[in-house]
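Section handout, structural biology tutorial.
Before the tutorial, make sure you can parse a SMILES string by hand: atoms, branches in parentheses, ring closures as digits. In the record below the ligand is fe (ii) ion, and the chain has 150 residues. In the tutorial you will relate the predicted structure tokens back to the input. Do not try to memorize them.
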Amino acid sequence: MRPSEVRDRVLSDHRHLSERLDRIEGLARGVLDDREPLPSTLRSEAEALLDRLAIHMAWEDLHLVPILRAADSWGDVRTDRFAEEHREQRELLGYVLRQLHDLDRPEDVVAGNVLDLVALLRADIVAEESVFLDERVVRDDPVVIDLLSS
Ligand SMILES: [Fe+2]
Ligand SMILES: [Fe+2]
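Predicted structure of the complex:
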């Protein structure tokens, strides 16, 4: 897969994840306003989001990280930083997942935590795109493509 294809795929994933974040934000606000939906819908939607995120991050680790490493002489610094971002995100996802599984936790607390998570994940997506998907870094450079295939 060429770097530009990996970049397009990650951006498309981010668009789908952002749509999910919008939907989940609406569900969490509904729970807080006592409108709807059933709190169980929020929990299951949030769990599905966390599953999708885990798959997305694993895909980035597999396909984007080698490109970030091969891009230039800052490759190792960049991939260390990327790994650190993913480590923090996985920690956060694990924490929220444990809360979702804790049925004793009040629904409005869960909804508030989900709203915080949505805000953080939106910021992470913006930051990841500006730092790690910059077209000057993720580019179809023959040297990079050669390094990736060797
Ligand atoms: Fe990521
Ligand atoms: Fe991402």
